[in-house]
Amino acid sequence: MKTIVANSDKEASALEVVVSNRQRVFQFRTDVLHDFSMKLVKDELKLERASLGIALLGVNRMAKANQQFLNHTGATDVITFAYPAEGEDQLSGELLICPAVAVEQAQEFGTSPASELVRYVVHGVLHLSGFDDLSPALRRLMKKEENRLVRRLEEWLPFENLEFKARSQ
């Protein structure tokens, strides 16, 4: 398991992103996922304060979390937990993300697993920022912003830099 913890260089506790890889089937650069997440929060969303935890889980652990917290069966792409935050310029929460689902959905949507992984971070962070996807109108609005941010992040650094692949057996 590899964990990346880093703060912004401005203020030691202002922007914190923690990436924890708790699965063993796929490998990727957690430091690069951290950089994408920090870029999203700091430069794209212009937040001054954030505390974001990203836990990457295997299929079984994600299915258990999905059942426990949402009463849904099976693994899902991302589960978002918002924590109380003070002020509009602050974000606080945790994302549970399943790389195995990213591989499945990449095949389904004709994208790459790396781009799906980044999309899940963007999707979760948008939820933490107040976006919702419970109605068709809100879903369209959120998807539009999600697509915009995913494009901006890939312009900044190609998703291939995540080096997302199955581990050798």
Q: Describe it for me?
A:
Residues 1-6 and 8-12 have low confidence and may be disordered. The longest helix is centred in the last third of the chain and has 21 residues, at 136-156. The chain has helices at residues 30-44, 59-70, 99-109, 113-128, 136-156; strands at 2-7, 15-21, 26-27, 49-56, 78-82, 90-97, 165-166. The protein is built from 5 helices and 7 strands; from the N terminus they run βββαβαββαααβ. The protein has one domain (2-164): Collagenase (Catalytic Domain). It starts with a strand and ends with a strand. Helix 1 crosses helix 4, helix 3 (99-109) crosses helix 4 (113-128) and helix 4 (113-128) packs across helix 5 (136-156). The strands form 2 sheets. The chain has a 5-stranded mixed sheet, with helices on both faces. It is α/β, with parallel strands linked by helices and 169 residues long.
The H/E string reads EEEHEHEEHHHE
The CATH topology turns out to be Collagenase (Catalytic Domain)
**What is the C-alpha radius of gyration, as a whole number of Å?**
15 Å
- State the distance separating the first and last CA atoms: 17 Å
Please state the second-level CATH architecture: 3-Layer(aba) Sandwich
How much strand content do the residues show? 15-25%
- What is the residue-mean pLDDT, rounded to a whole number? 91
Structural class by secondary-structure content: alpha/beta
Number of strands: 7
Instruction: State the domain count.
Output: 1
- CATH homologous superfamily grouping: Metalloproteases ("zincins"), catalytic domain
Tell me the major beta sheet.
5 strands, mixed
Uncertain stretches of 5 or more adjacent residues: 1-6, 8-12
> What fraction, in percent, of the residue positions are helical?
40-55%
* Individual helix count: 5
**Overall spatial form:** globular
